[in-house]
Amino acid sequence: MFRDQMLEEIYQIRSAVQEKAPLIHCITNPISIHDCANVVLAAGGRPMMAEHPAEVEEITATAGALALNLGNITDARKASILIAGKAAMRREIPVILDMVGIGCSHFRKEITEEFLGQRIPGAPLILKGNMSELKALAGGGCSVSGVDVDPKDVLSETNREETIRLAKTVANTWGAVVLASGKTDLVTDGREVHLIDNGCEMMGRITGTGCMLNVLTAAYMSVGKPMTAAVAACVVLGISGEMAAGQCRGTGSFQIAFQDALSCMKDEDIRERMRVS
Which residues lie below 8 Å from residue 14, measured CB to CB, with a gap of 6+? Predict the structure, then answer.
């Protein structure tokens, strides 16, 4: 029953994005900006990558959702993230914040805390990060080397209960959905927890797949509830990776096959491959 219901909700979200073609305002990093724009297009949305502080409030006001990303942060992007985030929450436009690197940089953690300090209760919000970044937000220090998850924080049988408890705590503290990305993705609203096991090893060998998950989630948030949107994005992007891995010769051809799989995916592919518990 759960599987059939989740499949139907994913089908509906994908169809709605293709039908409505929502504007997705993405304030992301230049490392992955091209791929992020193409992911939104492949999903059926309309990407806009505006990041100047003088225009982001006006653009956000017309968007279906706002995707924010702390990767490769600059002073201008910091200002734009705070301005656009506040504008979106004031209008109840869905927002997802990818907390890239807050486990290794006090500066990024402070931006996240400032962003959350202007949180408007009830406004749709997803907080995305790996488990090291979620631990940093929950009060841990900035002790991780780089933006990758610390190996000891990777979800496993030994730390499963602790990891779920931490994710729920973050979700309940900020009244948000938490998307903890990794080999197994975890999505929770503080009550329900979904674990998604789609994806492949090759996705970790190219840059920007986390950023792509961020903007795809934003596209789905524009037409669906945050919890379902996050699960749908994890499933669809993970299946895209699985399909591409079977067709590529290396990381270069994988990226092309990955985009092809995302843009050509059918509901039957999702039904056959979805792994959610």
Answer: 43, 44, 220, 232, 236, 267
pTM over 0.90: yes
Q: What is the identity of the amino acid at 82?
A: L
CA 263 distance to own-chain centroid: 18
Consecutive sets of 10 residues in the chain, 277 residues long: mean pLDDT of each?
A: 91 98 97 97 98 98 98 96 98 97 92 96 95 88 69 77 93 96 95 96 94 98 98 98 94 95 96 96
Q: HEC states along 81-139? A: HHHHHHHHHHCCCCEEEECCCCCCCHHHHHHHHHHHHCCCCCCCEEEEECHHHHHHHCC
Strand ranges for the chain from DSSP E: 23-27, 46-48, 65-69, 95-98, 125-129, 177-180, 185-188, 193-196
Sheet of 125-129: strand order equals: 46-48, 23-27, 65-69, 95-98, 125-129, 177-180, 185-188, 193-196
Residue 247 dihedral angles phi and psi, to the nearest 5°: -120, -5
Q: What are phi and psi of 24, to 5 degrees?
A: -115, 110
What local confidence, expressed as pLDDT, does residue 141 receive? 66
CA-CA distances (angstroms) from residue 216 to 28, 35, 65?
13, 11, 10
Beta bridge partners of 184: none
**Which pair of tokens denotes residue 144?**
């991780």
